[in-house]
Amino acid sequence: MIDVATFERWMEAVERAELVCLDTETTSLDPMEARIVGISLAIEPGRACYIPLAHRYPGAPDQLAQDAVFGRLAPWLADPAKKKLGQNAKYDQHVFANYGLPLAGVAHDTLLQSYVLEAHRPHDMDNLAWRHLGVKTVTYAEMVGKGARQIAFDQVSLEDATTYSAEDADVTLQLHRHLYPRVAAVPKLDHIYTAIEIPVREILFRMEREGVMIDTALLGAQSRELGEKVMALEQQAYALAGQPFNLSSPRQLGEILFQKMKLPAPRKTATGQPSTDEDVLTELAADYPLPKLLLEHRALSKLKSTYTDKLPQMVNKRTGRVHTTFSQATAVTGRLASSEPNLQNIPVRTAEGRRIREAFIAPPGHVVVSADYSQIELRIMAHLSGDPALVAAFHEGADIHKATAADIFGVPVSAVTSDQRRYIKAVNFGLIYGMGAFGLSQQLGIERNAAQQFIDKYFQRYPGVAQYMQHTREFARTHGYVETIFGRRLWLPDINAGGGPRRAGAERAAINAPMQGTAADLIKLAMIAVQDWLDCEKLGTKLVLQVHDELVFEVPAVELDHVRAELPKHMTGVAELTVPLVVDVGVGPNWERAH
DNA sequence: TAAGTCACG
DNA sequence: ACGTACGTGACTTAT
Asked: Cα(A328)–Cα(A334) distance, rounded to whole angstroms?
């Protein structure tokens, strides 16, 4: 058990150390709510300490005074010149922020090192320790248990917590010494890590901390409205089915549709059950009334349960705003992921869905600004393939789908029909996903041969694209990975090891990953450039959301003209491709109107 | 905890 | 004969 004098000696060593690993133990996994139970520090492999502060169980020993410890730590925590290391330090940064303690100088994060080296493998401490150091660590679950018998960390005995937590800090420091040299050995990976992921980590912290404002009253009204519509649809469905049943149960629904009512079942799911998904119901809706009703019910109950009911519950009591968590090491392509709540899948495709975006608002005197990259992945395909005709189409065409349709059908842009445009748009998207003729035929509802003809025609007109696809497959097979323009590596273990279907899947992922991954690199660079600009000019504009090709800001009305004029160039200036990068900016009182 | 479904880019 | 367009997260049902 650490005493005041020992703590002081540790702090002196900490202040002298070149890099210190920092780890907090807390009462909650929710970063905005977590309270500190103890802090561990490691200054070199084998030298770590645990500072217990708030273990609360019968017979728990007296611990150091929290205020005194925080007071001694604060200047060091806040000093950007004192370099810190963590494993997912964004979480610990929130925890300290919950006490008003700024944390600066996070120079390294083993989570991000592992992500840059091996995005496709697990990045939790226990996995990393075993894989890279051959060490079996005590897991968090072993400390606190799981399920109903789980306890909060402040109930863990001081002895156990000390062993566990000091080990975590120690192992993290060892991992850093093992992983960072491997990152640094590849200049492009070092650049991804040092110039992209580490700065983005800080920006994500600020975005999460800021949160986003939502109109809970509006969502509440929408919930009531949706609830009434959903109930009415249920009654109508019962009448058509001749009995009540649970519309949300695919199994019960399958029994009603395909056994009782004897509708033809077009497809089965992976487990052999007849599928009742949207495609199936849409097909059946052409001939029967019930499937149409079910589609409407599905759409509305999804909006209600996932969005209008849930989002108001996610409003933080202290801040009055919604704070998502952005995962920086989840998506294998380099994209971010958003959770609890996911603010990257707020509805936009239907009119009813878009109403939910009306509830994403700005505080008084502010507006919502949305800036998105136009056709970013297709532009990256043009750049990567270097296909002269596709590159030219981007230099000329305001509407790329129309421009490519004109190219492929050999007609002037003004003569492209809406069907021609729709078909080529599907091909353009499909190519990014590595689709085949079957997929395209399904998507367009046409014969497989006709779909194949579209693809053939496309590759004839844009042979560079066909070549690029082939080259990418070969590169993936040779190296076991593909890479983005910036050299982010995307590993594909199944590209050689897998059997038929797995390997085919890996080939499609290989086609998609450089485009999706480069887009992710570009928008991360944009976040850094934009945040640097906002900080330098001391603007009050806040970046609040990132949705893969879009950045959403809360902008003081007085800054609107300036932001609108300057923002696009900071986003388009992050790279010089063979095609122009284009950013569209929208402004409104809410996210819907800013689109 | 798995399966099915569906929201987004 | 088989599966078939990439990458995510969350909700509901059912075991």
From this structure: 8
Long-range CB pairs of A345-352 (<8 Å, 24+ gap) are A346/A307, A346/A591, A347/A303, A347/A307, A348/A595, A350/A299, A352/A299, A352/A300, A352/A303
- CA A248 to CA A250: how far, in whole Å? 6
Nucleotides of B under 7 A from a protein CB: 3-9
Assign A412 to helix, strand or coil: coil
Tell me the whole-structure pTM to 2 decimals: 0.97
Residues in contact with A118: Cβ distance below 8 Å, sequence separation at least 6, in sequence order? A491
Mean pLDDT to the nearest integer, A349-376: 98
Q: What is the CA A269 to C1' B2 distance in angstroms? A: 14
Positive or negative: CA dihedral A68, A69, A71, A72: positive
Say yes or no: Cβ of A127 under 7 A from any atom of strand B. no
Q: Is the CB of A344 under 7 A from strand B?
A: yes
pLDDT tens digits for range A379-415: 999 999 999 999 999 998 789 999 999 999 999 999 9
Write the secondary structure of A272-324 as one string of H (helix), E (strand) and C (coil).
Answer: CCECCCHHHHHHHHCCCHHHHHHHHHHHHHHHHHHHHCHHHHCECCCCCCECC
∠ CA A354-A337-A571 to the nearest 5 degrees?
Answer: 75
Minimum mean pLDDT range among A144-148, A321-325, A372-376, A535-539: A144-148
Average pLDDT over residues A453-470: 94
Query: Which SS3 state, helix, strand or coil, does residue A491 take?
Result: strand
Q: Is the CB of A305 under 7 A from strand C?
A: yes
* C-beta separation of A299 from A287 below 8 A: no
Is A353 near strand B, with its CB below 7 A from some atom of it?
Answer: yes
What pLDDT is stored for residue A148 in this prediction?
72
The nucleotide minimizing the C1' distance to residue A332's CA is C7
What letter represents residue A479's amino acid?
Answer: H
Cα(first)–Cα(last) distance of chain A, in Å? 57
**Angle in degrees, CA A289, A291, A297, rounded to 5:** 110
